[in-house]
Amino acid sequence: MRSTAPPDPASASLLHAYAQQLGISADDRSVNEPLDMQVDDRYRLRLRGLPQGGIVIVSRLRSLPDEEFDRDELLLRVSQMALGMMKEHASTCVVDSSERAIWLQQTIATNSTHDVDEAVGEFVNALAFWSKAVNAI
Fold this sequence. Notes:
By secondary structure, the chain is of the alpha+beta class. It contains three helices and five strands. Helix 1 crosses helix 3 (about 115-135). The protein starts with 8 loop residues before the first helix and ends with a helix.
C-alpha cells in the first residue's frame, strides 16, 4: 500500500499544483510530500504521488479486531461488499501492511488538477458509503 520510493516528478508537480489550487501554501509542504486534506469536516484523505506515475488517494476506514474470528468475519463481509462495488467505483478496500486497519484506496492516472479534483469527489462519495458500511458490520 505504501512505497518508500520518491514520487514521479510529473505526479509530484501535479499534486503540488492541486494543493495550491486548494489554497494550501507551497511553503507548508515539499513538492514530494503527500497532501493531507479534510473534506466536509468529516473525511480525512491523503493524496500521494506514485513512483511509477499517477496519484493514490487513501482514507482509513476502521481498525481490525484483535480477535481472529471477529477479524475474519469482518474481512469476509467487507470483501463481499467490495466485490459488489467494483463495477461501480474506482476505489477499493485494502488492508494495511501491518494488518491492523482497513483503508479505502483509489489510484488515478491523470495529467490535470481538474481530473484530480473529480477523482477526489468520486472518492469522497464512495468513502461516505464505506464509512457507514464497515462500521455497521
